[in-house]
Amino acid sequence: MEIDVTEEYVALYDFVEELRKSNRGSTTEIKIERLAPGFPPLFQRFYTCFDALRRGFLDGCRPILGLDGCYLK
């Protein structure tokens, strides 16, 4: 079974685009490194934060006032 690396990376970008369309407000980033023109791309990282997850996390957190190096009584 041979896998075309180029097709797999194109599919990854299609997946990112579909996530952005279906989950408005979500952030998605993909990083791929190209070592040289003749070499296949090298996958680095894939990051997704869904908007509903981010909003739920921020709504559930209590604001904190913090001062570095100082203690409040």
* Main β sheet profile: 2 strands, antiparallel
What is the percent of helical residues? Answer: 25-40%
Q: Which consecutive residue ranges, at least 5 long each, have pLDDT under 50?
A: none
Strand content: 15-25%
Question: What count of helical segments does DSSP give?
Answer: 2
Q: By helix and strand content, what is the structural category? A: alpha+beta
Number of strands: 2
Apparent shape: elongated
Gyration radius, in Å: 20 Å
**Mean pLDDT metric:** 83
Spatial arrangement of strands, main beta sheet: 1-2
State the order of secondary-structure elements, H for helix, E for strand: HEEH
* N/C terminus separation: 67 Å
How would you characterize this protein structure?
This protein is of the alpha+beta class. The chain has a domain at 5-54. The protein is 38% helix and 21% strand. It is built from two helices and two strands; from the N terminus they run H-E-E-H. The protein has helices at residues 5-22, 51-60, and strands spanning 27-33, 42-49. Strands 1-2 form a two-stranded antiparallel sheet. A hairpin with an 8-residue loop joins strand 1 and strand 2. The radius of gyration is 20 Å and the shape is elongated. The model has no long low-confidence stretch (mean pLDDT 83).
Concise summary:
This protein is an alpha+beta fold.
Describe the SSE topology.
Elements: H1 5-22, E1 27-33, E2 42-49, H2 51-60
Antiparallel strand pairs: 1-2
